[in-house]
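Researcher: Next entry in the queue.
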Amino acid sequence: MRHFGSSVTVRRLGQVGVDAALLAAAYALAYVLRFEDGIPARYEELLEDTIVFAVAMKLVIFAAFGLYSKLWRFVDQRDFVAIVKAVVVSSFVLIAALFLLSFGRHDPPRGVIALDFLLALAFVAGSRFVVRALFERPERGTLLERAAREVLIVGAGNGGQQVAGELRRNPGLRSAPIGYVDDDPRKQNMRIAGHKVLGTTADLPRVLDDTEPDEVIIAIPSAPGTLRQRVVTACRERGIPVRTLPTTFELLSGGVNLMRQVREVRVEDVLGREPVRVQIDRVGAYLSGRVVLVTGAGGSIGAELCRQIARVGPKRLVMVENAENALFEIRRELEEERHFARAAPVLADCKDATRMREVFDEQRPSVVFHAAAYKHVPLMEENPVEAVRNNAVATRIVAAAAGEAGAERFLLVSTDKAVSPATVMGASKALAEWAVEAAQNRWKGTRYASVRFGNVLGSSGSVVEIFRRQIQQGGPVTVTDPKMTRYFMTIPEAVQLIIRSGELATGGEVFVLEMGDPVKIVELARNMIRLAGYEPEVDIAIEIVGRRPGEKLHEELFHPGERPQPTPAEKIVCAVQRPLDPQWVESAFARIEELVYAGDAAALAAAVTELSADRALAISGGGP
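Model: Structure for this entry, 624 residues:
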């Protein structure tokens, strides 16, 4: 790290030195050009008296505008705008200083000031773009002669230009850009960064046939799934591989190693739904400087919660996890890869009430995200007692510990399977929502809320991961019913909205994330097979195996008696329903816990079914 810091300092000093020489040359040359027959003695004296001040003042202003914050080989149009602003401001400051401070008996002629402005702008901007041109120029021969692969870039914006520049600067990649495809009508037939825009994405089949590229790169991080699907389909028909820049959630700005971030197109890229865009630094500001506790910190949702919470600067991040290896991995990632040193790993079981009270008394969290849960539906059907113990009873234990410890906010990560539950897993999460609602009635000082949403892509046990393994094994890909649909969202999107929901919570709400349109599972299977380079039913078979017990054709996000109510946040609505009777909840959980600790699976299943029916009746206007 010390070596890295010193190299940065040397680089910046070198840039400052070059600019100092160029600015001094521009200032002196302005006098020379203004007086063709030689500089009069009085102005030559003024030049000598003011040149050091003029150069030093301009360097300070240039530094304030960030002109020394990046390598010159990577300058772009935004840097040119910054250069113009810096030169304009420094020229005005120079005018004010020379005319107000009166360095000599004579003020500089206006022509000198004008020439100095033009020359300084030309020298400073020109030097940077000359450096960039030298680095981008092929060392020998033309780029296309040395490139093994020709690349068509979809998107002529910042991302596309960075990809093109990276390909030119790195001969080792053995690839060369041959042009762009972009839907902006203003860019059609224009040359951008040395390459022509050959058409729109609607023209892509024609462009592919005309240019016959070896590869296509989608360089639009915010591209909707429909556009990515259109590109993938056109390229797939011609056997042309497609890669993509990461999405907005994944892409770090201004990377020198941009091409290392280019990856294969994944199924989440082509689902067709618009990605949710949330500024986590803004919406998560309420977590800054606070003690935040996450249960299930090693799971798919819990780990991503830890990553994103770490970004907003909590005072301490308490990570509660029952799986030793998962806790070890998320702690290692935060400390070694993300340089977050305020993580407190706690190996504990949320079902242990005594241990939870100890953790909360010791850590005193202000905000709690309860993400610990069992979620594999078939496995929970086979282990109903443990499903209810872990998902429902444990939620009640953690919610109580949060209330007793005086936590300000408590957020339960719920699921759409809690709506009109048809499985043990769904019923256990419905019970968890009831526990949170009942906790709000008991501990008024804590803002309790639940966040309900559908499937997330990339989580362990997700249908996407199952399909991926089946495709790698050569098939068949198993679908339970050709009519089945599910909602999908990426893990980072879901977590950002969970954090946003925590900010919105005033107490007792059930927030529901808008998941977009449901996706047909059979179409998801076909898309994944095509993305893997195969043809459905030709190379990889799709087998319909029939629905499992309790499995719904279509998931629901709201109970029949719930009313969706908008919130100030995009993609988050509130499910308004008739409140529960606290005494009914207490008696219901007393009954459930008795059966759980007795290990009576049959009686427990019957009781959960009965209670779910009672709750459904209550929501619709009767019952408890």
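Model: The chain is about 50% helix and 15% strand.
Researcher: Noted, moving on.
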